[in-house]
User: What shape does this take?
Amino acid sequence: MQSKIRVLGHPVHPMLVVFPLGLLATAVIFDVCYMVIGNSRFTETSFFMIAAGTIGGLLAAVFGLLDWLEIPQGTRAKKIGAWHGIGNVIVVLLFAASWWLRRENPTNPVPIALACSFTGVGLALITGWLGGELVDRLGVGVDDNAGLNASSSLAGPSGHRQFR
Assistant: This one.
């Protein structure tokens, strides 16, 4: 089932999710560095990464929702997609809460702010697996003509390359 929202032949949602996932996961790594080393610059940087990751997550969610709406009702993919989407909304909410709790003193986050981030990244591992299940197992977002010898995504309607 091919994604309806594409840029240069590729679905938009998977292109966007790498940014929030990378930012939010790195924010947690920086929080762990702070806990081990004690340098508050790590948590200050984490604060800004969480803000950017949350905004990016919301943007990616819009395109994910548009893709999910195209999945036929009554399919396993529709159910897995719902769990994937709801779980990722919770991930974004957990990180938004972490950011909110840090806002007055980004260099010294309260323990609940760290707990929100750590829980969020743990849940993101599960929702990421569900996203992989959608693409790799259920074929959501995969071009209808995909194959080992498929033409370039930059090929025109006739299958001839527009760019060499």
Summary: The beta strands are 6-7, 10-11.
